Amino acid sequence: MSATNASKRDILRQIRNAGVIGAGGAGFPTYKKLDAQVEHVIANGAECEPLLQKDRESMLQDQEAFFRGLEIMRDLTGAGTVTVAVKKKNADVIDRFQGDLASHGFETLVYPDVYPAGDEYILVFEITGRLIPPGGLPLQVGAVVDNVETIINIAHALAGRPVTDKYVTICGAVREPVTTIVPIGTSIADCLKLAGGCEVDDPVILTGGLMMGGVTTDPMLPVAKNMGGIIPLPRNHYLAMRKSQSRETYTRIGHGQCDQCSLCTELCPRYIMGYPIEPHKVMRTLLMTGEAKQRGSLWAQYCCECNVCSFIACPESLDPKNICVDAKKILRENKLGRTEAELEVLFRDPHPARKGREIPIPTLITRLGLRPYDRKAKFKRFENWQPNRVTIPLNSHIGAPAEPVVGQGDRVRRGDLIATVGDQQLGCPVHASIDGRVTAVGPRTIEITA
Ligand code: SF4
Ligand code: SF4
Fold it and tell me: Is 450 within 8 Å of 386 (Cβ atoms)?
């Protein structure tokens, strides 16, 4: 039975006040997503990024909260179906859950071990048969999709527990790859110690994921609410070098070497789904200026930045993904986009050979030189451990950064509110992740020392 309007408002408020945001991607505030009536709730446990296991482990370690979170989502949205989506490599999780899934009336989708299976556009299409409109949201086709860890946090929120911890997989060039839970704001350096330390000096560290995540060389960067992976690699590793390439370099090389073979387009997951995105045409804009460049940039508008074109498709190792990112900036600056009439013509049915063009994870691991790092990152709970210091980001979520409500020198307890966002603004409050004293307050972070 769906929640009444009054209780729904109260539940959404509790989810907001607990600081729940998307734990697996852009950090969209969850209360906003759930303020809707939909037909389908989808739990995204597809764990798209290679090597990561934090979604798998969060479901296994927090099974009760996971199921409670799904029930809350169903009640809030009035959804008729709830589907738990995992990749084949984690089908054993579904086997373990079988009895509970059946008793709750939840369904499952076990998707092949391909990249990018966790793209919500793909999951929604596989489960509902509906295509999200170009640039749109699952809501527009009657679905809400949340990462499995977010769903666990929803259950915790209703039990009065704000978001203070994060599941992370720490792998790559570390001595003992591990999946664990750390307080939000823990530094990458402290996380690496939990994985037995780094195997190389002076690594490049991929954050979030190998394909779509960020890159840093700063070991003091803190774990944010939406950072699921920490993957140091040697500086001369293919991915580390590709991810660290400057705009000047990838633009210059792309300008000179793209032969318009169009393989980037033929393998682009969004193009294959029928969306008007053609990276080889965006590459042509490197030779253009003015209006022609702007028109050509429109072929980048619906790029989801999955990196298949750059890391898998292009035989010249060019960087169409970053050229698309730059093209989207041009579109934003000039307020340009496809018209409805253009989309009428350009938005097609999915390609009939779609399945044959998905990238098997073993292929991806081999192509990216990740074989030495393809090791199990087993779950380990570090019961009596906590970092001496955390630096908690105030802007992990989409929307307004949270405003500090504590000052330097204040004593705080784990779970205390330390920053908040006005009721009318999109965003979420932020909480202390350890007991300690506030030792620094900035516009983007609050530091707490134990
Ligand atoms: S990054 Fe490349 S492959 Fe991925 S959606 Fe964008 S253009 Fe397509
Ligand atoms: S795959 Fe590479 S060379 Fe071919 S069109 Fe795309 S960017 Fe150019």
Answer: yes
Choosing among 2.40.50.100, 3.90.780.10, 3.10.20.600, 3.30.420.40, the CATH entry for 165-237+371-387 is: 3.10.20.600
Measured between alpha carbons, how far is 367 from 369 in angstroms, rounded to an integer?
Answer: 6
Pick the residue whose CA is nearest to atom 5 on ligand 1: 303
Q: Which ligand is nearest to the CA of 260?
A: 2
Residue nearest ligand 1's atom 8 by CA: 268
pLDDT in tens, 330-366: 999 999 999 999 999 999 999 988 988 999 999 999 9
Distance 357 CA to ligand 2 centre (A): 16
Residue 399 region by backbone torsions, left for phi larger than 0, else alpha for psi between -120 and 50, else beta: left
State the ligand closest to the CA atom of 268. Answer: 1
CA of residue 255 to ligand 2 center, whole Å: 11
| CATH of the structural domain 400-450, one choice from 1.10.443.10, 3.40.50.720, 2.40.50.100, 2.40.50.140 | 2.40.50.100
**Rounded to the nearest whole angstrom, what is the distance from the C-alpha of residue 124 to the centroid of ligand 2?**
29
Name every residue whose Cβ is closer than 8 Å to that of residue 98 and which is 6 or more positions away in sequence: none
Residue type (1 letter), 366 = T
Q: pLDDT tens-digit profile of 96-151? A: 999 999 999 999 999 999 999 889 999 999 999 999 999 999 999 999 999 999 99
Helix, strand, coil shares of the chain, percent, nearest 5, are: 40, 20, 40
Q: 247 CA to middle of ligand 1, Å?
A: 17
